[in-house]
Amino acid sequence: MVVKLKCIVIGGGKIGKSSLLHTYKDFAFPTDYEVPSCPNFQSRTINADGTDYQLDIHDAPEYQFDEYYQDADVCLLVYSLIDRSSFEDIQSKYYREVQRVPGPRTAPFVLVGTKKDRRDEGTAKESVSTEEGNQLSKSINANHFVECSSMTQQGLREVFDYAVRAFQKSGAKPKGGKSSKSKSGKKSGCIIN
Ligand SMILES: Nc1nc2c(ncn2[C@@H]2O[C@H](COP(=O)(O)OP(=O)(O)OP(=O)(O)O)[C@@H](O)[C@H]2O)c(=O)[nH]1
Ligand SMILES: [Mg+2]
Predict the structure, then answer these.
(1) Predicted confidence band of residue 181 (pLDDT cuts 50, 70, 90)
(2) How does residue 190 score in pLDDT terms, banded at 50, 70 and 90?
(3) Which one of 19, 46, 75, 131 counts the least CB within 10 Å of its CB?
(4) Which domains does the chain carry?
(5) Whose CA is nearest to atom 32 of ligand 1?
(6) Each residue of 80-139: pLDDT tens digit?
(7) End-to-end Cα, the chain, rounded Å
(8) Given the CA of residue 149, which atom of ligand 1 is nearest to it?
(9) pLDDT confidence bin for 36, thresholds 50/70/90
(10) Whose CA is nearest to atom 2 of ligand 1?
(11) Are 21 and 38 contacting, i.e. CB atoms less than 8 angstroms apart?
């Protein structure tokens, strides 16, 4: 049996949300100048503690956030490690949004910092440190915090493995969102413990 989970991705503009999803889906960083949105797709199967999960992943448009969030099982709150305002927006805007949406419970969420390759180059002016990310993660009570790069794929798989783990830890039942019913994908093991 495969447990299907709806996962939505939210955060500011141009922070690498769609690139994250395309790269995870295709194992290749998109080279488009304007990266197209990555409409919903089914992840490969992720095994955690003997249970197979499959994420139904949505690149949620901001204007439809409420609609997407209603039956989400897990959420990725994303900022860019080289864009401080996107980091500040997590606390002042996106985290509040997650809490504001009415529903039986707040979906568990993973805090994700993108574009790690650029931050680690040390040339970005507005970069956000790992320590700052850890502090934010604690203050908003994120289930996990991951820094990643879609360009190098460093930390990429962990983002989605942690999404499953966050759901699992929450002890919730899948909400069974409309869009959770679809084909299964290839299998991959969960690498987190
Ligand atoms: N160096 C580097 N650039 C990245 C990375 N991820 C995304 N980018 C670049 O950042 C820009 C924005 O990426 P998108 O994936 O379109 O970001 P988005 O958050 O989906 O943007 P909107 O949907 O327009 O809000 C593009 O030029 C990407 O090539 C990364 O990991 N490293
Ligand atoms: Mg996008």
Answers:
(1) very low
(2) very low
(3) 131
(4) 2-170 (3.40.50.300)
(5) 115
(6) 999 999 999 999 999 988 887 765 567 899 999 999 999 999 888 899 999 999 999 999
(7) 21
(8) 31
(9) very high
(10) 115
(11) yes
* Rounded distance from Cα 173 to ligand 1 centre (Å): 33
Q: What is the DSSP string of the chain?
A: -EEEEEEEEEE-TTSSHHHHHHHHHHSS----SSPPP---EEEEEEEETTEEEEEEEEE--GGGHHHHHTT-SEEEEEEETT-HHHHHHIIIIIHHHHHHS-SSSPPPEEEEEE-HHHHHHT--TT---HHHHHHHHHHTT-SEEEE--TTT-TTHHHHHHHHHHHHHHHTPPP---GGG------EEE----
Tell me which residue has tokens 């990555």.
38
What is the spatial distance between Cα 95 and Cα 143, in angstroms, rounded to a whole number? 13
- Model confidence at 185, pLDDT cuts 50, 70, 90, reads very low
Ligand 1 pocket mutation, candidates 9, 19, 58, criterion most atoms within 8 A of CB: 19
Tell me the pLDDT band of 178, cut-offs 50, 70 and 90: low
Nearest to 164 by CA among 192, 126, 122: 192
Residues in contact with ligand 1 by the CB-under-6-Å rule are 13-19, 35, 37, 114-115, 117-118, 149-151
How far apart CA 128 and CA 159 sit, in angstroms, is 18
